Fold each of these.
Amino acid sequence: MREKITKLFVAAAIAEACSWLALLIGMAVKYGPPDNEIGVKIFGPIHGGLFVLYGLLVLAVARLQRWRLWPTVVALACAVPPFATLFFERWAARRGMLRTAPEPDRPLAPVG
C-alpha cells in the first residue's frame, strides 16, 4: 500500500505540472491572437482535478512516510506555482522522503 500511494504521488506531481503547462498554453491561446477558449475549457478542469488529487496524495504520503509539518505544508504550497510540484518531488526523493520499502534493520553493535 505504501509503495502504491508513494508512486501515485510521484505520478500526480508530474501530471499536475504537465497540466499546468497545458493550462498556460490554453490561456496564451485564449488571450493571445487566436482568441480561442477551447484550451482553457479542456485543461482547466483537468488541472483542477489533478490539483485536488495531488493535495490528497500529499496528505496520504505525509502520513505514511511520517513527514513533519513543514515539508507537508511546503508540498501542499507547491501545487500553486507552475511546475513547483516537480521540484518538490525531486527534492523529497533526494532526501529519502519517498522511500517505498522500509529500511532494513541494522545489526546491533557488539557489546564489550
Amino acid sequence: MSLETMQPNPAWDAASYEDAVDTLEAHDDLVYTVWGGDWCKDCRRLLPDFGAALDAADVPEDRIDEIAVDEDKQGPGVDEYGIEFIPTIVVETEDGDEVTRFVEEEDVPPAIWLAERIDDER
C-alpha cells in the first residue's frame, strides 16, 4: 500500500537542497523503507518534501517501500524494525544492512538528515 503523503510536494525546490539531492542520487544502491500514515500530522508535514527529494534524485520506485501503519502504529515490519514513531525512514543496502534511519523527532527535514548520515557512513 502506498502513502498519499509520499506524493512529491510540487512546491519543493530541489535547487535549494542540491547537496541532499546529489547524495541521494549518487547512492543508487540504497533502499528506502518509509513507515507512515496518511492520518498522521507529522507524516503530512514531512513526507511530501521527502517524496519530492527522492523524485528529484531519480530514485527508482523499486528502491522505495512505503508502508502504511494504522493509528496504533501497527503494520508490516513494525516489530522487526522496532518502529515506534512515524514517520520513520530506514535506509538499507541491497543486502539489508541498515545504513541510517530518520525518526519523526529529528530537527531537520528527512532528505537533509538522511543525506548527511549517508555521506558520513559511506
Amino acid sequence: MSEHDDVLEEAAGWLEQGRKVALATVIETWGSAPRPVGSQLAIRDDATFVGSVSGGCIEGDVVTRALETLTSGQPEILEYGVSDAMAWEVGLACGGRIRVMVEPVTG
C-alpha cells in the first residue's frame, strides 16, 4: 500500500466516525519542490493530520487553511514560493514553488 492510499484510507475512516475532513493535494510544482504532484495531506476537524504536502515546511499553514475550508465549505488553492515572504515564514526555503488545493471532503 502506498503512502497516498494510507492518507485516503485514514480520511475515509475519519468520515465514517462522523468527523469533518479536508484534503490537501499538491497540484503543481516548479523548480525544487519538497514533495511531488499528487502528494496529499488529510486534515481532521480537530487539526489531526496524516500525510505530507511539503516534507513538513508548510504543513502548519496548510492545516490552518484546511480548517477554514471546513467552516466555509469552499475549496481553496494555496501557493507557496521561495520568493514569497510567507514561504520564509512557514519554512519553504527549498528554492521552488508549490501549489496546493485544499478542499472539504463530503462522505
Amino acid sequence: MIKNILPLTAMALLLAGCVSAPEVRPPTRQPTPAASFPPRPAPAALRGLEGVVGKDANALKRLFGEPRLDVVEVYGRKLQFVGTPCILDAFLYPERKGGREIVTYVDARRSDGTAVDRAACIEALQRR
C-alpha cells in the first residue's frame, strides 16, 4: 500500500506547484464627474485676496483694466493681468450650475516665473 501512496503523494505535490495565486489588482480610482467644480478655498487662504475672490469679470476689469489674456475653458475662465511687478491669473468658475462666473482662485508670479505673494501682487496692480 505504501508503494501506491508514494507515487500519488509525489504527483499531488508536483501538481500543487503548478497552481498560481489569484492575480491581485490595485483598486481602481473612480473618475470624477466632469462637471465638478474646484472646492472653495478656506478663509485663512484668502487673507489679502478679499478684493478679488468672489468678484466677477467686470469687477476685475474695473480694478485692473483690460486683461492681457481672457481664456474661456469648458467649465470656467481665466483672466490674466500684467504689470511691472507681477502677473496675476484669476480663475473664475460658476457659483452654481448655470450661475455667474466668479473668482475662486488667484495665482501670482514674476515675469521669470518666480512665485510672489498674491495679495501683494493684487495691491501692486491696483496702484498702477
